[in-house]
TrEMBL record:
InterPro entries: cNMP-bd_dom (IPR000595), cNMP-bd_dom_sf (IPR018490), RmlC-like_jellyroll (IPR014710). It comes from the Bacteria. Gene3D superfamilies: Jelly Rolls (2.60.120.10). This is Crp/Fnr family transcriptional regulator. Residues 22-127 form the Cyclic nucleotide-binding domain. SUPFAM superfamilies: cAMP-binding domain-like (SSF51206).
Amino acid sequence: MLEKIKSDFPFFEKHWDEYEHMFKEEIIPAKKLLLSQGEIAKYVYFLDQGCLRLGFNDNNKEITFQFFFECQTVTSMESFKSSSPSPFFLESVEPSRLFSLRREDALMLYNKHEEFKDYLIDFLLSRVTNYIRLFLSRIKDTPEERYLDLIRNHPEIVKRIPQHYIASYLGITPVSLSRIRNRIWSERP
């Protein structure tokens, strides 16, 4: 991941010795809470290996909002930007290796290097695009259509994520997901 960071940002290549110390490697087990709902996000994470999920608790019911895999950047952007309590929690789904960058260091890089600013803008736009897609899908698609879309467009989720997290992500119960899966597999030739 550090090599990807260096290759994505030419200024890091030139000044890597100056910035390398800012990226702290973390190897974490599955189900490790990186950010609690209501806590202020102090880090942005660059995921090298593994999977993380962003979610929230609604009346003691966990709702998974987004999954992140290798070579993706993760934070509660709402909290990170404004230093306000995060509406989300961030947790590892499987053992993961990531690099954390403190908010203060990220803001310094943002203000000092145009490429880093562009990267963060692309990251934010990607997240907003995902949120819009998810929002529209919840309105217009049936649960089965949402699951079929997941199989087609995000097979890594279906292969690597426990079914109860997938059900939560789709806005259905695990029992409903099981029925949908059985129906889909029984209809296949």
